[in-house]
């Protein structure tokens, strides 16, 4: 790009190798920097999203117009804050049901709920949501599945989706959770790769009685 006269600026990467190369050419990379990606705050060194909120708990007398403006300030295209933000949206629904005008001062019960919600933003500032589902070099284990949970009420509906991978073997689990240098070369190389790509604390054993795949290895009666 540089040879074509297109100098690359304002870029960011979660790759340590890319940041090191940047430091060689342009000076030290700001490890504390926060990058905006499609409106989301992205910490490149930790490779996680987090939320920056600028609301004050001292909002004075709140109206339906102010309530809507507070909801609009939470830019959350991935729905990561939905369990928290849905509270205000349901409250906004209630202002319509009761027929409040845009600039009517809302009753005290609304003011109390809004103040409690805004105070909860202090906890949101500490949230760190990992951006990466899995490392590029990881094949995802022997089995991959999407687990979807959905629910609905008269006021809202939603779903959450998890990507789950499973492998079987308590022996393999003990390899992963120990020092790879203890094992023979064949096992050692694979354990080292797993430990580099994932945290050993994230691996767990599922007992045979609770493992539905266990039936496939032992057989069972149709009844």
UniProtKB/TrEMBL annotation:
Protein name: Uncharacterized protein
Organism domain of life: Eukaryota
Lineage: Eukaryota, Metazoa, Spiralia, Lophotrochozoa, Mollusca
One Pfam family cited in the UniProt record for this chain: Peptidase_A17
């Amino acid at each position: 790009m540089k040879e074509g006269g297109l100098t690359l600026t304002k870029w960011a990467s979660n790759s340590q190798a890319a940041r090191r190369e940047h430091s060689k050419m342009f000076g030290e990379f700001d490890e504390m920097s926060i990058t905006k990606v499609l409106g989301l705050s992205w910490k490149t060194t930790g490779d996680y999203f987090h939320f920056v909120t600028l609301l004050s708990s001292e909002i004075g007398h709140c109206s339906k117009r102010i309530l809507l403006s507070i909801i609009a300030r939470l830019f959350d295209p991935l729905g990561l804050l939905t369990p928290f933000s849905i509270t205000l949206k349901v409250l906004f629904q209630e202002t319509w049901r009761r027929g409040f005008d845009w600039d009517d001062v809302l009753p005290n019960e609304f003011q109390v709920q809004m103040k409690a919600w805004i105070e909860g933003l202090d906890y949101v500032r500490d949230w760190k949501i990992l951006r990466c589902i899995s490392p590029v070099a990881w094949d995802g284990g022997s089995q991959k599945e999407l687990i979807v949970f959905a629910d609905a009420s008269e006021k809202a509906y939603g779903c959450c989706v998890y990507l789950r991978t499973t492998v079987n073997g308590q022996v393999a689990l003990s390899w992963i959770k120990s020092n790879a240098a203890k094992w023979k070369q064949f096992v050692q190389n694979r354990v080292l790769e797993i430990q580099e790509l994932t945290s050993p604390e994230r691996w767990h054993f599922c007992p045979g009685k609770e493992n539905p795949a266990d039936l496939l290895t032992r057989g069972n009666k149709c009844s």
